[in-house]
Amino acid sequence: MEKKVLLAYSGGLTTSVCIHYLRYKRGYEVLTFSADLGQLVSADKLAERALEFGAHSVFIKDLRPRFADEFVLPAIYANLKNDSTHISIALSRPLITEELILIAQEQNCQYVAHGGTPKGNDQIRFKLSLAAIAPHLKILTPLNEPELSSYSAIVAYAKEHKLNVEEERKVYEEDHNIWGRVVKAPALEVLETPPPEELFTLTKSPEDAPNEPKHIRLDFEGGKPTALDGEKLPLLQIIERLNQIGGIHSVGRTSGIYEKIVGIKSRSISESPAATIIVSAHSALEKLVLQENLIYIKSLVEQEYSRAIFKGLYFSRLRRALFAFLKETQEPVTGSVTLKLYKGSAIVETVQSPFSLYRRQLATFGEDDSFKRTAAEGFCEIYSLRQQLESSQYDRLHEKHF
Q: Does domain 175-352 have CATH number 3.90.1260.10?
């Protein structure tokens, strides 16, 4: 029986070379699966490229609506970030792996493969997801082979076999979905050099952005964005529109150092216009409707949820338990947020909610103040009691004895 492998195919140079390598060097029948998650490469182009490099069969599926509703929405609940960067690529991997497994089983493939590198995060994410839901499937990792051990080796392999690739590329890795775009490139490896403007494709530079700000309004129901500027829209359409609007105004650019799962420091740039706008608005609305102690605990859960997603633990009980907490917090997160987009910033201007915990008559310093001022002195006395007791304890512990 001929060995069959299903390759997760992005359409880029590395996974294109993987097709040729698996078929002509290792003798596999190669099938490819590509998920449409909002990247710019068309389905026709993906199919044409995969067949050109030697794929026997090509599978492509539009997963944008499901990605938005089942993966991005929980990320909004969690205000999902890795430091200052919105997590987008790690968020897509469990969905891609899940679909990869379904097609592999339907096509009777004994193997699945990916274009993850030995230093990269994706090799771990694919492995953990497969271990959780399809441990019987074997994983092939072509980029672990000596012949494909570096980017220059991949280019050399392509030239040797007269494959149709660009000889000069300015990007080593580029990954793109509706929630963000991440780029790693040779120019970024020199820390003293600012990121070249040419690496940014979704967002204008702040210098080229409009001189007039753009004002928008986002409506939320139970933590979910439901309308943009008063127009009810599916989440996917809201995200796609905000990517366009935010990109024009240079919103969502980041550049910085992050640590890979294997422990190596790396530098990348990212562009996430919609994520930046939505999470800024969502976080502002939460501050209006949730109590401070809940916001504090939620911030800790958010950090752990982000770590679980980044480290490939999507299908773990930990991730499910954290999500259950996050979902419980979202019921009152309903209302409207207006923002000003201007030369790279998304500034929250107003926040309103029917479940607001803000009371003007309590917050005001005006004459209509309803706060019971006479209670303040007693409250302060009781609230400071524990500090008084601790202070006296300290004095006794440090009392000098002669």
A: yes
How far is it, in rounded angstroms, from Cα 281 to Cα 351? 8
Confidence class of residue 360 from pLDDT cuts 50, 70 and 90?
Answer: confident
What pLDDT band is residue 401 in, cutting at 50, 70 and 90?
A: low
Burial class of residue 264 in the structure, from the number of CB atoms within 10 Å of its CB (0-12 exposed, 13-18 middle, 19+ buried): exposed
Smallest CA-to-CA distance from 23 within 166, 167, 142 is with 142
Strand, coil or helix: 71: helix
- Going by C-beta distance under 8 Å and a sequence separation of 6 or more, which residues neighbour residue 387? none
* pLDDT surpasses 60 at 169: no
Domain boundaries, the chain: 4-171, 175-352, 363-395
Nearest residue to 39 via CA among 164, 174, 173, 203 = 174
Confidence of residue 402 (pLDDT cuts 50, 70, 90): very low
Architecture of the domain whose range is 4-171: 3-Layer(aba) Sandwich (3.40)
Give the count of alpha carbons within 13 A of 25, CB side only.
16
**pLDDT the model gives residue 400:** 59
Neighbouring CB atoms inside 10 A of 221's CB total 12
